[in-house]
Write a structure and sequence with these properties.
By secondary structure, this protein is mainly alpha-helical. It contains six helices and three strands, in the order ααβααββαα. Helix content is 70%, strand content 8%. Helix 2 (34-47) packs across helix 5 (103-127), helix 3 (58-65) packs across helix 4 (69-81) and helix 5 (103-127) packs across helix 6 (129-154). It is globular and about 60 Å long.
């Protein structure tokens, strides 16, 4: 089917790109950019694991998203303007800023999660439970491989 390892590699990359494009067209929340959806979901997840009363540290959001501080600041400004999040300063450490979901932000996150679940229910119906579990297993293996490969190069 494939003439060489290179052809197989190109086919895998093409399949991933096609999947990403199709996913972006199908997983949309009205009124939100993809980056805003991702940011709100990440914040929701992060807030479940923090005990700080002011919310999640902005620096933690930067680390989790693996984007620059200016990019995170831009996202925060846009989501603050839409009244989905609030930002506050630590009264003890004035350099530390925190972000928290507003009630309106929590509603949007609930919609994001609902849309996400519906999308995966549809995929499972299309592929079948067995194939979906196999896909999850293969993607998990590939992710582990790529993460281990990246970590060994960093050392």
């Amino acid at each position: 089917m494939y003439n060489s390892e290179e052809d197989l590699g190109q086919t895998v990359v093409k399949a991933f790109m096609n999947f990403k494009r199709a996913e972006l067209r199908n997983f949309k929340v009205p009124g939100l950019k993809r980056s805003e959806t991702r940011f709100l979901f990440m914040l929701h997840q992060g807030l479940q694991h923090t005990e700080h009363k002011l919310g999640m540290k902005v620096s933690d959001a930067t680390a989790i998203l693996r984007v620059s501080k200016p990019s995170v600041t831009q996202q925060i400004n846009a989501l603050e303007e839409k009244k989905f999040i609030i930002r506050s300063q630590d009264p003890v450490d004035k350099r530390a800023a925190y972000i928290q979901l507003t009630d309106q932000g929590k509603e949007v996150v609930a919609e994001i999660i609902s849309t996400f679940h519906k999308s995966f229910e549809d995929m499972t119906s299309f592929l079948g439970k067995e194939e979906m579990e196999r896909l999850i297993s293969l993607l998990g293996k590939l992710t582990d491989y790529l993460n281990n490969k990246a970590e060994s190069k960093e050392v």
